[in-house]
């Protein structure tokens, strides 16, 4: 399959990063969000990262401006009419995602692959709401997208080999490494990572240590690049909570129960770096 034009739905931290790497790899990209404000925020983040790459002599000025020329923004899902691939990166909520997929299914051409960047939700259930389940797949990028090498590719029960192979090829064209996994809650990445983050939050909740001390233990003792609480703030505490809820409900096992402190932070609007406050203050 020859993908020339693609669309990314959601211009938040993941969607903007995904749009950037596709545009840098030479694809025509349409970036979609609900409002012009969100699109502007996403686009200006991409512009900033490209200027930094020019300053550091990683790319030329010509490459940066050609990348931006390949990037359009739109608030209309109807603009997917000429896209060969669409990647959804909206909030981690099944109802919102299935709505987006049903609308896309009406507007994207019949040959188009519809992928989700979901962190944990069942791709099989998302595929089932469309008329093209064999062309639906999970394409799970890691944060920050321009830096991290992994793309976890999740096969739904209905995903065809042709769809899988097309996504594997595109992942390599982005200079990233595909890893194939099957469709179970949290896949592999978040089934392993998120219980560690949740346990780190429990240690703070139970007064075992301060956030700084927990992070120091994992950074200096286990050589993690970021401590788990810094990482939780970086991912977004709302996203962390949604993922723990998917694991808890999906496996029905109390070992995945979200820490009450995580719930409380999300209720307070302390969502981490993106809201200015989480386990740490950002300003
Ligand atoms: N967006 C884009 N680029 C970024 C960035 C961001 N938010 N933050 C840092 N970078 C880039 C920098 O520009 C720099 O690039 P150059 O080398 O080209 O200059 C490079 O990353 C290294 O940055 P720094 O030297 O400033 O910082 P660092 O060495 O501490 O690395 C890091 C930063 C790469 C983010 C590192 O701390 C790290 O690997 N952290 C862990 C990240 C991680 O675990 N991600 C997975 C999260 S889980 C997930 O994504 C799945 C999910 O579903 C929740
Ligand atoms: P975010 O909150 O930064 O961005 C979400 C964006 O989606 C927002 O700009 C919002 O306006 C937009 N949006 C919401 N509903 C929409 C709709 N109906 N149509 C178009 N746009 C809509 O979230 P994020 O961190 O970028 O996460 C997005 C997805 O990626 C989630 O499924 C998340 O689980 C997954 N993910 C997140 C990370 C991470 O580290 N944050 C890593 C991998 C995957």
TrEMBL record:
Q: Which residue numbers delimit the 3-hydroxyacyl-CoA dehydrogenase C-terminal domain? A: 186-282
Instruction: List where this protein forms a coiled coil.
Output: none
Pathway listed for it?
Answer: Lipid metabolism; butanoate metabolism
Looking at the record, the residues that make up the 3-hydroxyacyl-CoA dehydrogenase NAD binding domain are 7-183
- The entry's keywords: Oxidoreductase
InterPro entries, alphabetically? 3-OHacyl-CoA_DH, 3-OHacyl-CoA_DH_CS, 3-OHacyl-CoA_DH_NAD-bd, 3HC_DH_C, 6-PGluconate_DH-like_C_sf, 6PGD_dom2, NAD(P)-bd_dom_sf
- Record flagged with keyword Oxidoreductase: yes
**In its keyword annotation, does this UniProt entry include Acyltransferase?**
no
UniProt-listed PROSITE patterns? 3HCDH
Q: Which family does it belong to?
A: Belongs to the 3-hydroxyacyl-CoA dehydrogenase family.
The protein's name: 3-hydroxybutyryl-CoA dehydrogenase
Gene name of the encoded protein: hbd
């Amino acid at each position: 399959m020859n993908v020339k034009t693609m669309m990314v739905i959601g211009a938040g931290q993941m969607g903007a990063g995904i749009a950037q790497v596709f545009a840098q790899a030479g694809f025509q990209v349409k970036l979609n969000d609900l409002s012009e404000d969100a699109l502007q925020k996403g686009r200006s983040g991409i512009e900033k990262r490209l200027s930094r790459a020019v300053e550091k002599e990683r790319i030329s000025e010509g490459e940066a401006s050609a990348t931006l020329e390949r990037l359009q923004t739109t608030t209309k899902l109807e603009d997917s009419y000429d896209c060969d691939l669409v990647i959804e990166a909206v909030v981690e909520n099944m109802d919102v995602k299935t709505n987006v997929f049903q609308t896309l299914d009406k507007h994207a051409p019949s040959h188009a692959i519809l992928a989700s960047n979901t962190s944990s939700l069942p791709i099989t259930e998302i595929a089932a709401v469309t008329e093209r389940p064999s062309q639906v797949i999970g394409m799970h990028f890691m944060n920050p997208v321009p830096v991290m090498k992994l793309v976890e590719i999740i096969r739904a029960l209905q995903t065809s080999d042709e769809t899988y192979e097309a996504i594997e090829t595109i992942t390599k064209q982005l200079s990233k490494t595909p890893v194939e996994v099957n469709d179970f809650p949290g896949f592999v990445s978040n089934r392993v990572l998120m219980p560690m983050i949740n346990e780190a939050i429990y240690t703070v909740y139970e007064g075992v240590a301060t956030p700084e001390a927990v992070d120091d233990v994992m950074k200096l003792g286990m050589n993690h690049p970021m401590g788990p609480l810094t990482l939780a703030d970086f991912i977004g505490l709302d996203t962390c909570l949604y993922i723990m809820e998917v694991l808890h409900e999906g496996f029905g096992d109390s070992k995945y129960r979200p820490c009450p402190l995580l719930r409380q932070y999300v209720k307070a609007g302390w969502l981490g770096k993106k809201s200015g406050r989480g386990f740490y203050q950002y300003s």
